[in-house]
């Protein structure tokens, strides 16, 4: 009996050990390596996990405002996911969009809607963003989620599944939200599982500005002095039971989606939790876990849904930590901010301080639902378009915001179903269609990216230019962006230039203007290519 027990135990131990080795190798390889294959239209690694491409495109849609707009466009009552005409999605596909992020699909509560219709600060924001708003326009924040089921106003979970199938059938992928840091105030757990939340220290009088009446902290950044969202409650990721419950919810979202955008994902890193909520947790004798919840949760989800893509809303300096935890993409807010500042040394410094792989795992944007419209933020359509030239020709996720191509300046408040009406900017529409035509190419989606130095010429204006090149098989592109208010010129050594038909001569084509130029491959590789680029503009050469 003892001998039999010994061998049984030994076999179990060896099985467990081998399983851990396999899991460890799978996790280590999940970012890049292994044999590439196709699974359900996704590019993936041989271990089944999603493989990040050099570049791809995502369109963020604020779902309920979009349906409100479509109802007027079609003069029909389009209120549910099943009502959306397939041609609307086909239009995204025609632009080279691969991902559609349907922001705000999940169930909300009455508390949040009442909060958003009565909070003085929010009402002031509405008046500024939409002067003629009515209370009917206030639809409630999509980030005060009660449960991860479809908002009944939009349909059912089966309708979400059907939407995913509809998108997949035309070659698109569905991304939805997960809000890890907090829940709605009227989330069922607030009554049934109060220990799932951060609570005021026992035997204290909670500050009503920071705590709900039951002593649970409002969602936010707690002791660090950052945001407090009084329509939400702060979850406690140092509670093992909550960690399991949230992993189950994340698994539910993955079952309905191709990808998941995770709101303020960095706030539940252990270091952030300790900074923001350490005293409260210590008062309840709650200890920090040895592992990050994200690492465990993402690996668990990918064990069942290996092609699920995770994108994190995150701000410096937490990007690296979330990429290491398993996120496929992290926000590149620093690039956005540096483009806003306009300091070219700062922009170049950011581009040269990270390697290509880091940028491949980044999501680059000129606007989104949290930020001002690009034309407003950058100060003009010209400057916004120059920022788009640079932002959307880098490796990684090209992350577009709804109606960005129209050149709007008025913000669509996340709590509202509409924004202040304005005319479409026809120049912006033309610009984006040209940009999409250029970037909708394998060289920008599968190629290798290399940053290039621009050498000064007699004009001494080379500092105004940012340059890099792409190559995929025999396809090559050279991108030069003038991110300044004056014409710039300089010389760029293009080491992979190659003459046609075994000779030295080649033709280079500026895909932006359509102009072609005869050049010498050997001169491009040695002396360099002389370029002159107008202010707030770009040249993208095929060569």
What do you see in this structure?
There is one protein chain. This protein is an alpha/beta fold. Strands 3-4-7-11-12-13-14-15 form an eight-stranded parallel barrel, surrounded by five helices. Strands 16-17-18-23-20-21 form a six-stranded antiparallel β-sheet. Strands 8-10-9 form a three-stranded antiparallel β-sheet. α8 packs parallel to α10 and α12 (333-341) packs antiparallel against α13 (344-352).
Distance between the termini: 76 Å
How much is the average pLDDT?
Answer: 92
Any low-confidence stretches, pLDDT <50, length ≥5?
1-48
> What multimeric state do the chains show?
single chain
Spatial shape: globular
**Share in β-strands:** 15-25%
Task: Return Rg in Å.
Answer: 25 Å
Summarize the structure.
The chain is an alpha/beta fold and 543 residues long. The chain contains 19 helices and 23 strands. The strands form six sheets. It has an eight-stranded parallel β-barrel, surrounded by five helices. Strands 16-17-18-23-20-21 form a six-stranded antiparallel beta sheet.
